[in-house]
Amino acid sequence: MANQQGDLGAALEPVVRDAIGAAGFELEQLDVQRAGRRSLLKVVVDGETGIGLDEVADVSRTLASVLDEHDHVLGGPYTLEVTSPGLDRPLTKPRHWRRAWLRLVKVRTAGETFIGRVGEAADDEVQMLVGGQLRQVPYGQVDHAVIEVEFKQPPQEELALLGGGSQEGSS
Predict the structure, then answer these.
(1) 163 — phi, psi (to 5°)?
(2) Taking a C-beta distance cutoff of 8 angstroms, is the pair 140, 146 a contact?
(3) Which SUPFAM superfamilies match (predicted)?
(4) Which residues of the chain carry a pLDDT beneath 50?
(5) Fewer C-beta neighbours within 10 Å, C or N terminus of the chain?
(6) Domain spans of the chain?
């Protein structure tokens, strides 16, 4: 059964990716599960600057229409779940790091684990403020990184070091 699910996911992935791309977003993850005669498609969608609830709904409608055109691939009824990535999503791409600008992030490399504030994110590395010191962290050295939830405003001096200045009106 797992092989059939994998085959179905592989067959649907380009169709789903193209439909989401045409809507201006990116496919983060596609999971396909079979429950009897019904398929469950879980689709995680994101964009360069994130994705809002209204946009998730629009993508869901567009994707449902495209999937209906590919009913022969699905081979029966399906349930479609479209969502955005959660806060606990690992930072694996430069755009994830760009969206985490000024956020606190826990990073694990082969040699250490540390918490730092995210600065400018380039294509191959990210600037971080760690223990009051700025350092460049190449993505290739990061084994795992996730945003740490903060319950209070970050210190203005940390934000200033990273080019953040005042944080009024940001989320």
Answers:
(1) 80, 20
(2) no
(3) YhbC-like, N-terminal domain
(4) 1-3, 167-171
(5) C
(6) 2-83, 94-161
What are the residues whose beta carbons fall under 8 Å from the beta carbon of 15, sequence distance 6 or more? 66, 67, 70, 73
- Single-letter residue type at 33: Q
Give the whole-angstrom CA distance, residue 50 versus residue 83. Answer: 12
What is the third-level CATH fold of 2-83? Alpha-Beta Plaits (3.30.70)
pTM: 0.64
Distance CA 25, CA 45 (A): 7
3-state secondary structure of 121: strand
- Which are the contacts of 10, defined by CB distance < 8 A and separation ≥ 6? none
Query: CA-to-CA distance for 99 and 92, rounded, in angstroms?
Result: 12
User: In whole angstroms, what is the distance from residue 103 CA to residue 63 CA?
Assistant: 32
* Strand ranges, E, within the chain: 26-35, 38-46, 78-83, 104-109, 113-121, 125-130, 133-138, 142-147
Domain 94-161 has CATH 2.30.30.100: yes
123 with 94: CB under 8 angstroms?
Answer: yes
